[in-house]
Amino acid sequence: MFFLDFDNSGGLSDQSVAFGEPDDLPAIGDWDGDGDDNIGLYRPGSTTGVFYLDLDNDGGAADIVTPEYGDLGDIPIAGDWDGDGDDNIGVYRPGTGEFFMDATVPDVLPSKMIYVDDDFIDDPSEHRWDTIQEGVDDAADGDTVVVYAGTYYENVDVGRSITLEGEGVDVVTVRAGDAGDHVFEVTADYVGISGFALTGATGSWSNAGFYLSNAEHCNIFDNNASNNNCGIYLSGSSSNTLQDNTVNSNGRSGICLSSSCNNTLTDNMANSNNLYGIDLLYSDNNTLQDNAVNSNGYYGIYIYSSNNNVLMENTFIDGGLFVWNSYRNTVKNNIVNGKHLAYLEDISNFTIQNAGQVVLVNCTNITVESLNLSNASIGIELLETDDCNIANNIISNNRYGIISQYSNDNTLANNIVSNNEFGIYMRYSSNNTLQNNIMSGNTYNFGVWGGSLSDYTQNIDTSNTVDEKPIYYWVDQKNVQIPNDAGFVGVVDSTNITVRDVTLTNNTQGILFAYSANSRIENVTTSNNWHGIFLRYSNNNTLSSNTANSNNYGIHLRYSSNNTLENNNASNNDYPGIYLDDSSNNTIYHNNLINNTPYNAYDTGTNQWDSGSEGNYYSDYTGTDPDGDGIGEDPYQIPGGTSIDHFPLMQPWAGDTQQLGDLNGDNQITPADATIALAIAVGGSASCDAVTLAAADVSGDGCVTSLDALMILQAAAGTPANIITWHSYEEGMEIAGAQNKPVMIEVYTVWCKWCKEMDRVIYTDPDVIDLADQFVCIKIDADKRRDLAARYNPAGGVPTTVFIRSDDTEVHRVVGYPQGGAEAFIQEMMVALSNA
To answer: Residue 676's pLDDT is what?
Structure first.
């Protein structure tokens, strides 16, 4: 950077010009003989050097580039060696004390001015064009293209070392002709561009107003690049200057540097971009100074895997700095919401006061206490920082309230963390102590993420709350149940833990199991979490009858095996309802996966997605059911790998249906069932599950009383009790043979909707019940007794009712649910009796 003083008064420079690279040597002379000196530089190479000379002191592309000149170690000089009125180049060689002067180099190379106006008629001889691309194509290295007021619809490729001068950002607008391409793409070195408003490059995430690809020594200044995906994007580009540009309201970033080094960004304004004001990705040794970054979606400035950068005197409003895997950066004299940005790296034994944001990198024993940190993107960030005390702070309206990355043995106490996107988030950090922290109103109040067991080993007690509910974070526990007032559940390195009847919302994980086994999660509702239920390295657990709706991920297993997932509902999650990630030998069946995006299920491992006869319901299943048995004819391919559900359900799984009065599931009515009914009558509905409760209400009055117990006892004793007595096949055929009585066999499945309707409507009709006394009644579960189902129902449709004599001779058959209801079924029963 050249700083020029026009009156030798000192103080601030009258003009600053970005030109050259850090190791260049300055050379000053009147290269064109107009009486004014010009800037230049001498770039030493491995054995010789090259002069780059600027005739108008504007930076950007050099007007003259000499052939190689001099030797390694030479010092540039300039003077009018031949008295012709313009200066010439030369070098002094310290090793020999010799001067080498060239009276013929440089000659001022001819350059031309090219003019563009959208009202022009193309005139090649006068270098006048109506599109910018035509003007660029007309130019050679060192030429200048002047663009007059107008709106231009094009994508401009700049592959020459030229200067592009727009008449001004308020009058020259270039809108992307193709939204999937950059407005200006620069692939040459020494390009200068100013005075343009670029917009409309909104196709892919990297489409930009200005896109510099492997370009060096360019000067992009006094432009407006707004309403693109990126305002200015540098890819593999170094030693460029971005100055006095406005980059607002872009879909991703105002300015993005990707694998780009030694660039200078000064006096730019980056406001209201969707993600970042300025972001550096794998980019080192850049300088960001005097930039204004306001109200960007995620972070004002984001530094990702980028080292040795300088951030000085930048101003943040409603946003701040986020550093990820980045080190040895110099951050000083920056302001966040009117307070200083407290950035410490490699510092120990220090107390931070009166800051607008706190970022600690590789620090120890730092105290951050009694601060009010809001609207700063990150309230407090700890990166590889240990043994610190974070206490009594009020942190609100940030993306992260407190984030800990690879940081251990810290204490977080008595902090109030509210209305952030993430409240407190511990990432790859171990053995931290959390006490009396209040988290409320955050999108995701609390979460822990890591790889190894130590990352999940924390000291967190129930004095910490999320939305006024305690955090239960248990490490190395066994044989206990989580209380049902939990606001967050973390189970680490534990066995035989039960989580039941809990509602969990607004956390990074509703339920976290890490390195835990032989436990149960059942009847839990999780919603609006990042992960509804998350298992990592957790095996031999059962997840049953849970609801995971409207999370990012519904149920997510990572590196977890031999778990059973059954009878769960996962719907309207932003990612898969059930996601098995590098997990194997899990069994998943009787789950309802509805309207999850982009997939209802996703599996990268080897798992079983059915019970061997019944699978899961998928709202996006497009197969058919020609035999009407409720099982799809075509298997369902689980995205992500090779797993298949061979028996996808055609309708959502509604749960098992028990026979009325058969409360212990032994397919018969006995005094034991009456005892269970009486216990339910005394204990109320909470003493059993909903399926058993429905089976106990034999009177059909909507509740279970001693009357139901009496009716079941009467049925067990053979006294008519207004219910049908169903027998197992073997028992029923033995009774029929002994009594020479006809037999009514129902072939059903527990998942079949119309089978449930038979139990609910047909077999509870009083006239059907009375007529059923003329038969021995047998139920056959087609999935459990496939031999009998094939024998009595070879066509496979359910429900099917088969009437036989006691000698096993079929006399009548009813396929499907009777369309005329109980009255129609009675007529079929009468036909069967007549035939028998």
So the answer is: 86
